[in-house]
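Hello K.,

You asked for the raw outputs rather than the summary table, so here they are, unedited. I folded two proteins back to back in the same session to keep the settings identical. This is the first:
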Amino acid sequence: MSLENRLAVITGATGGLGSALARELASHGVNLALLDIDPARLEPLFHSLSLPTSRIFTQSVDLLDLSATKATASAVLNKFGRIDILLHVVGGWTGGKTLVEAPAGDLTFMLNQHVWTTFNVIQAFVPALIRNGWGRVAMITSPYAARPIANGGPYAVGKAGQEALMQTLSQELVGTGVTANLLQAKTIDVQRKKVSAPSSDNASWTTPEELTAAILYLLSDAAGTVNGAKIPLFGSF
């Protein structure tokens, strides 16, 4: 498998998972379009990768703005001429209150973070993958989307909506050479605590490196028939 000269769009690029993906894909020769809402965090990531400007594009964009998201996709295409991979790894959680207590804003925030950003990036970027006749879309979900826990309703609703969008997309992509898959994690262990200080509390957490390894498999030609999957990366529930 060679990913050299493929173009990967990574949203939430400055987060713990997004930056790990950027480093790993860069080492495989992948060209990168790194998107984040915070321009101040994009600059240090850009410099840390030490890539020639011909291989990297960075853009601050609000993914809740469909017009801005589509304009960003056009800018990426203008620079690279193609988009092959979409890794939408924008994260976010709010909770801790029962459904009776939770303010409506919590549900709105989770729907925006997980449903509307997913809908917008699909509309903006996936058409370019379809035109290639080859492409990969991957996003991160949670087992709590299907099995909500107490005091986590808005998050569960947001992730369930994201899963519904992605599984619909996977069916609409059949026969195009493009796949869409989900990776399930309970907690993304950005600080690698389950490695440095393992405990029963963090045993089911997932490191960015574990998620990156699974995504690399999904990007491979060997995973060409994997479509519409929800891959658990959290051990037991």
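The second followed immediately with the same parameters:
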Amino acid sequence: MLYLHYKFWRQGYRVYQFHYSSLFKTPAENAAKLYQFISKIDAPAIHFVAHSLGGIVLNHLFHIYAVNKAGKVAMIATPLKGSAVAVYLNKKKYFRYLLGKSIIKGLLGDGPDWSDKRKICIVAGTRGIGVGWLFAREVMQKPNDGTVNLHETRLEQADESHEIPRSHFLLLISNKAVKVILKFLSK
């Protein structure tokens, strides 16, 4: 997220980076920490930009807490409907530990439905090699970003959806993704 942090800061945004443990805390527990984190930010509006599991944490945040500040949400490669790769890896004894508590009401697809009314932009990748391609190729469907299948990122309530020919992690340093999100936030 450092590249995104820098790019948004260069455009005049005050940027706050939230760090969380995907192995030792559930998405709901991380949402509680995020709520405390944003409660200390003195601003009339807070935009949220999340990658992958971070979008699931945001989903829990808005499902559990009343976030009264205005703002928009951009999710990059977030499997809001669950991850076929995570389901597959969770069935394998040695890979299950790599997922940690991120699977609890999260990556397995049993998280809450998106219910917040704020404007949302989805950015998803359509090309690349990733964890799914390497370890769970049989559950990868085209198109995908090497880790998340494109259809897993879909959200009916989204105001915008963009597909970028990048892998799951290269989306984090994609200038096209940055441009899409900056344009969305400026509207």
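The domain at 2-186 is CATH 3.40.50.1820 (Rossmann fold).

Happy to rerun anything if the numbers look odd on your end.

Regards,
P.
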